[in-house]
Every structure is written in C-alpha cells, then in structure tokens.
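User: Structure with S-adenosylmethionine, tokens only please.
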Amino acid sequence: MLVTRLKLAYFNMLEERRLKKLSSPMFRKIDADWKRHYHRINPYKVCRTFWNNPHGIYGETPLSALDPILKECALGPSDVFYDLGAGRARLAIYVAATYPCKVRAVEKIELFNHHTMQLIATYPLHLELHDADILEIDVSDATLIYFYGITFSDNFIRKVAEKIPYGCRVITVSEPLGGRFSVLKKYWVRYPWGKTEVFLQK
Ligand SMILES: C[S@@+](CC[C@H](N)C(=O)[O-])C[C@H]1O[C@@H](n2cnc3c(N)ncnc32)[C@H](O)[C@@H]1O
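Assistant:
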C-alpha cells in the first residue's frame, strides 16, 4: 500500500513537471484554481460512493501523455471533442484551454459537476458540461471522442460505439472499439496504474 502510494506520488510529480513545460499560462491558472476546488476531496472515494459498482473505479488521464495524440488529431474550430465520463473535467479543461475546438464533458457525479460549473463560470472556456449519462447523451455532433472506458462492460462499450456518428474519431484506452471502427494508430501511454495501449480509430 505504502509502495503504491509512493509510486503514485512519484508519477504525479513527474506528470506535473511535464505539464508545466507543455501547458499554457491560461491552463496553469485554471488548474491552480481546479486544485483549490479539489483540495481535501478524494475523487476515488466520491466515485466509489456515487456508483457503488465497478463504474466507481476512478482514474484520471495523464495530460502530458495524451497531449501528443491530441496534437496529431489537429483539433480546429469546427471540431467537437467529447470526454465521455469526464470525472473532475481536468482533461476537458485542458483541451478547452489548449485547442480551438468545442469541448463537451459528460459526467453524472453531482459533486464533480458542481465544481466544473464553477470553473466554467469563472473562465472563458469553450467547454460545456453535460450532467448526463453517457448512454443517454446525444453525440451526433462529435468529431473526436475520448472514452477512458476500462471499467465498463462489453455491453456498455458496444452501446457507446453504436451511438458514435460515422466519420468521428475515437480514442480508447486498452482496447479498440472493434466492429465498424478501424484503428488509425496505436500509442503506448503511461497511466498511473501502468503502461497501456491507446487506440485512435474511426
Ligand atoms: C476513469 S474516470 C475518467 C475521467 C476523465 N475522463 C479522465 O480521463 O481523466 C471515468 C468517469 O466516468 C464517469 N462515468 C461512469 N459511468 C458513467 C455514465 N454512465 N455516465 C456518465 N459518466 C459516467 C465516472 O463517474 C468517472 O468520473
């Protein structure tokens, strides 16, 4: 347990260093505020309590590791990026503060959404929060979707895949969506829990 905590602290320290070099002053300002909002809130506990099932296994994407993939996607003003299951919306905020596309964060946990709403109200971000279930939200305008769906059932993932509009690119972690999607590129990405493949598909 102690070793795991130390490893996580070390991982986070390296991530923060990389992010400092990578991110814009605008993101760093919002991020400092984001950290103040979540001071003393344990997202793992919040998520576990809210879902009381396997969806409750919380984790966040290391922004510095995902950024090279986002760069390659060349998000422009006509793009609409979705984070399906946005959690504390740090990734959504990062994308909105870094790229000129529209960003939509989809999340069900009220506590996370409460803080995300306050941040959206404070900063001029082109980010919309959808307090909605991933399976119920209309994603027909999406051009790039990020789905960190490692804890979802095959049935859930299949239902998500069915909703995705043709031509939309999708980034998934650990497994590709399969079916009508073709993998455009694979990447090795280091998450706090280990190195895994990330798939960009269409
Ligand atoms: C692993 S976290 C990912 C957070 C963020 N996307 C990131 O990569 O940093 C998954 C999030 O999905 C949310 N989630 C799980 N099932 C959901 C559902 N059916 N509808 C909306 N959000 C859901 C959870 O509450 C959790 O915050």
